[in-house]
Amino acid sequence: RVHDVDERLRVKRFLKRATVEWTGEQALAMTVGFCEVARHWGLRFLACSMLPTHVHLVIGRTTRDIAAVMNQLKGRASGELVAQGIHPFQSVFNRKGERETCWTRRGWNVFLDSVADMRRAIRYVEANPVKEGRRAQRWSFVRECG
């Protein structure tokens, strides 16, 4: 499906709060949480790009439910942001007393059925920062912490 930029911008006007934009310091903190999940669950990251408003990860084959994996990744990344005192909503709590989240409820999951699909996804994720006018990223936790 073709990405409709005007529609995306129109819908953003109705969001509860402005889009979170992570800093480099926050991105580094999130990788600590990602690595904790990878080590604990035996995950292997094959590619990662962390941009101010979103993260792309290619994760190797796992028997884990992908929704549970994403929930753990977001939760541990948030935990590290809180621990370092740099969570975007460090002092913002809802009526239940829970810290507001800096993540969307669901992520976008694509299941890769072939080596060609995996290579294509890795190339896409690695090219994403450059496509957005940023430097290429090489994260040490990709292939190393899992």
Task: Describe the model.
It is a single chain. This protein is globular. Helices cover 42% and strands 8% of the residues. The model has no long low-confidence stretch (mean pLDDT 88). The protein has a two-stranded antiparallel ribbon. Helix 2 (24-41) packs across helix 3 (66-83). The chain is mostly helical and 146 residues long.
> H/E order of the elements?
HHEEHH
Record field, number of beta strands: 2
Q: Low-confidence spans: pLDDT under 50, at least 5 residues?
A: none
- Which shape, going by the Cα principal axes? globular
Q: In what range is the share of β-strand residues?
A: 5-15%
What is the helix tally? 4
Terminal-residue CA separation: 33 Å
Computed over alpha carbons, the radius of gyration is 16 Å
Key words describing this protein structure:
mainly alpha, two-stranded antiparallel sheet
Question: What is the fold's blueprint, element by element?
Answer:
Blueprint (H helix, E strand, L loop, with lengths): L4 H8 L11 H18 L3 E6 L4 E5 L6 H18 L31 H17 L15
Antiparallel strand pairs: 1-2
Helix pairs in contact: 2-3
